[in-house]
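During the reporting period the student researcher (J.K.) took over the structure-prediction task from the postdoctoral fellow and processed the backlog of single-chain submissions. One of the processed entries is reproduced below for the supervisory committee.
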Amino acid sequence: MARYTHNSGDTRGGFNSDKRKDDFSGDRKRSYTFEKGGFKGDNRKDCDPKKGSFKGDRKKSYAPEKGSFKTEKKRDQDIDRSGKRLNDAAGINAQERPGEEELLPNIIMGRNAVKEAIKSGRSIDKILIPETRDGSLNELIGLARDRNLIVREVSRQRLDDICMPFGHSGKTGNHQGIVAFIPGAEYCSIEDMLNYAKERGEAPFIVLLDCIEDPYNLGSIIRSAECAGAHGVIIPKRRAASLNAWAVKASAGAASYMRIARVANISSAIDELKKAGLWIAGADMEGTVAQKVDLKGAIGLVIGNEGDGLSRIVKERCDYLISIPMMGRIDSLNASAAAAVLIFEKRRQDA
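J.K. obtained the following structure tokens:
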């Protein structure tokens, strides 16, 4: 007794059955609307092509412009176009989400990093230590109290909780029993770097980082630059790692001494350095071998992104490109390793 009706005045169309069990319009009141392209029933589940979302009893929706799922449990997971998780319970990869890192505590963790921060005289709000500690930690506490810094004892669990966003795989960050709270990252201007070089009576040597995303790479490069006596490191504000706890710890304390500028874009920074008389050398696989290029004097060395290298605009602004000779089967180095090789090649030539 089932039949299909589609009259000129009926815009929906559907099956009608006396049994009202397996049809589209019956006790379940489920129908298909051609205008909206979706199903409606007791569970109120529909699809709106204009919005690209499903709505039902659980209020679960997908928003293409946001790339996230949301439910009543408020459990959401942002996914970028490559399918990489950007947010999880432990806060992993939080630095890759714009503005997310600003919510993380401004801390320095690890014994070497905290020790160098104290010795450099930088601003420290307070230092937290565990109730039980060993000899080397006691030496650090004595150094902090000599500088009249606030030192408080807390449980090791408290330290673990503070450093949890800086860990991975559900494990807390490696704080080594000491955490220092600081007012925030201390950035300077490019002019400060140039004045510092002038005060030392040296030709300016500045390292520029074109969108280095890994904070550990950032910290390692800062460490190499400081060890080589560079006058500053310049990083962009967007799409790049900032001077957070990951970077500070990876620098092994070098971030407390190195002058770091955060600029709107690297291209403008290059133009400013050129006006100050610096030559700009960009690290690129297609460049001339660094040993064959004159790197003496005032130089700005540009290191590119871990995966993409130098951006097109930045590459065009470089005076010349330099490379590292590769003799193995792997044709590239990690960004921080490549930066270290080129930084010390420049210093070798200066010597």
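The committee noted the following: DSSP finds nine helices and 18 strands in the chain.
J.K. will present the remaining backlog at the next meeting.
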